[in-house]
Amino acid sequence: MTESATDGHEAAALLERTRSSVNPELRRAVESLPATMRRVAMYHFGWEAADGAPTASHAGKAIRPALVLAAVRALGGPAGADDPVVRAAAAVELVHNFTLLHDDVIDEDTQRRGRPTAWTVFGTADAIITGDAMLSLALGLLAQDPHPASRQAATRLTACVIELCAGQQADCAFEERPEVSLAECLEMATAKTGALLGCACAIGALYAGAGAEEVDAMDAFGREAGLAFQLIDDLIGIWGDPEHTGKPAGADLAARKKSLPVVAALTSDTPAGRQLAELYAGPMSRADVTPAAEAVERAGGRDWAQAQAADRMGRALQQLSRAVPDLGAAGGLLSLAEFVTRRTM
Questions:
Q1: Are the C-beta atoms of residues 193 and 227 closer than 8 Å to each other?
Q2: Residue 58 above 70 pLDDT?
Q3: pLDDT at 1 over 90
Q4: Which of 41, 142, 183, 299 gives 20 to 30 Å between its CA and that of 126?
């Protein structure tokens, strides 16, 4: 078995353990919601069908709460199913799903995890309101947590949410602008994706009793890994297999999203980049998606994104070594980092 395959199995096992320990806390929080919001949330997490019937689905990959638990272990803290850090991990996952509910509305995405998105089933208003409620549940979990790190964790999480919103706002603004620089796009992706992964790692460090330097280094590790994650996610958004992504092929191109590979292509000053700009200038038909994907590749967007993802993971490991000099103790974090940058397209 190759090293990558081994890491993949380790990450899958860690994610499964995370779901087993965090999902009960998530469900307790969601089940405390009023009936209408509870129904939307239960559907979004995959625990119920639209009619309220139980399903065998689970609540997403659980990468962010897994980072919380792995960060605690890397820094020598406990992370059992009954440990308070599980509540903090659940809070991070609730924030993530708050953003997903809102993002699906903003992007008008009709599929998530292979099912119709919540707003298409229950309506835009109920999806947005349920997302707001999830954010409140997340902060409530930390507010009620007697752990000495909970206040600092809540402070970090609230600041992270503002950064997430700023990233989402920038992402929306880019769709209306004819030109976007790569620097702007990288900054947006760091805020929209890297911030929460960094916050997850920092919260784990706080619950392990780490000092300020280690907490900041863990935050930086998560941010860099998060940017690598987003780069791969953007590649999947163009070339991903619908059977794996749960979304139509080329969905990001059809929506004319200015994802990182697209912006790299648009700013390449190449004939293919100019062709892509012409396609992006007007409505994108399904017939335009394949030529647009080919243009991104010929303009170097795909190669650039793959190289950037590798570079960002290198930076992430440098930051991790500041917090955990013996990287052998950070096996969970390393396997998760490997997992998010080697997902199947």
A1: yes
A2: no
A3: no
A4: 142
β-strand partners of 48: 54
Radius of gyration of the chain (CA): 20
The C-alpha atoms of residue 39 and residue 81 are separated, in whole angstroms, by: 26
- Encode 104-142: b = buried (16+ Cβ within 10 Å), e = exposed: bbbbebebbbebebbbbbbeeebbbbbbebbbebbbebb
Residues 146 and 161: their CA atoms lie apart, in Å, by: 22
* Helices of type H across 240-300: 242-245, 251-254, 260-266, 271-281, 286-298
What's the rounded mean pLDDT across residues 31-51?
A: 96
Tell me the pTM.
Answer: 0.92
φ/ψ of residue 91, rounded to 5: -60, -40
Query: Worst-scoring range by mean pLDDT, 48-62, 187-201, 303-317, 318-332?
Result: 48-62
What is the C-alpha to C-alpha distance for residues 255 and 186, in angstroms, rounded to an integer? 19
The count of residues in the chain is 345
Q: Classify 246 in phi/psi space as left (phi over 0), alpha (psi -120 to 50) or beta.
A: left
Percent of all residues in the chain with a pLDDT value above 90, rounded to a whole number? 78
Tokens at 152, concatenated: 């600092």
Cα–Cα distance measured from residue 67 to residue 59, given in angstroms and rounded to the nearest whole number: 16
- pLDDT 10s digits, 158-168: 999 999 999 99
Query: What is the Cα–Cα distance from 67 to 197, expressed in whole angstroms?
Result: 7
Q: Other C-beta atoms within 10 Å of 337: how many?
A: 26
